[in-house]
């Protein structure tokens, strides 16, 4: 296992994922982002392109971020596990635990104001309890990650909005709240010059 704090260059801890992946998909975004979004695992497009959330879920995420005044480039985006599971199945408990040191090291290095967990897998991974994501979306819980107590905000997964349109508002609202906690990092500063 070779890694700097943000990126894993090599890892063979999960034999099934080593077989199913094309590459390790590391997080993207500023190394000092105020918001870190944690998804589940790379899908087919992410595995092909080597970047989280570049498929259909990524398009939804980008739209919601933009609507909240956040450009994708100002947030850090990563996943619970960095390798694509076979047939896009959920990562197992063992795989989540194998990948956890990578995630903790990334969170530690970025030191964000808020961590947003996109869906059940990352929410349960970081909160270490079962989570009813739809009911709990927008709630913030303080949890120890590594040596530090951090604010984790539960959020629905962007893909959930494809199956249930009513989830879209929940997703949007949660991202707006996360942006506010983080001090609206890409707040519309430029408009000040227009007056
Ligand atoms: N879904 C995720 O949870 N992560 C990705 O990177 C893409 C889709």
From TrEMBL:
<feature type="domain" description="Uracil-DNA glycosylase-like">
    <location>
        <begin position="26"/>
        <end position="180"/>
    </location>
</feature>
<dbReference type="Pfam" id="PF03167">
    <property type="entry name" value="UDG"/>
</dbReference>
<dbReference type="InterPro" id="IPR051536">
    <property type="entry name" value="UDG_Type-4/5"/>
</dbReference>
<dbReference type="GO" id="GO:0046872">
    <property type="term" value="F:metal ion binding"/>
</dbReference>
<keyword id="KW-0479">Metal-binding</keyword>
<keyword id="KW-0227">DNA damage</keyword>
<dbReference type="GO" id="GO:0051539">
    <property type="term" value="F:4 iron, 4 sulfur cluster binding"/>
</dbReference>
<dbReference type="InterPro" id="IPR005122">
    <property type="entry name" value="Uracil-DNA_glycosylase-like"/>
</dbReference>
<protein>
    <recommendedName>
        <fullName>Type-4 uracil-DNA glycosylase</fullName>
        <ecNumber>3.2.2.27</ecNumber>
    </recommendedName>
</protein>
<keyword id="KW-0004">4Fe-4S</keyword>
<comment type="similarity">
    <text>Belongs to the uracil-DNA glycosylase (UDG) superfamily. Type 4 (UDGa) family.</text>
</comment>
<dbReference type="GO" id="GO:0006281">
    <property type="term" value="P:DNA repair"/>
</dbReference>
<dbReference type="InterPro" id="IPR036895">
    <property type="entry name" value="Uracil-DNA_glycosylase-like_sf"/>
</dbReference>
<keyword id="KW-0378">Hydrolase</keyword>
<keyword id="KW-0234">DNA repair</keyword>
<dbReference type="GO" id="GO:0004844">
    <property type="term" value="F:uracil DNA N-glycosylase activity"/>
</dbReference>
<keyword id="KW-0408">Iron</keyword>
<dbReference type="InterPro" id="IPR005273">
    <property type="entry name" value="Ura-DNA_glyco_family4"/>
</dbReference>
<keyword id="KW-0411">Iron-sulfur</keyword>
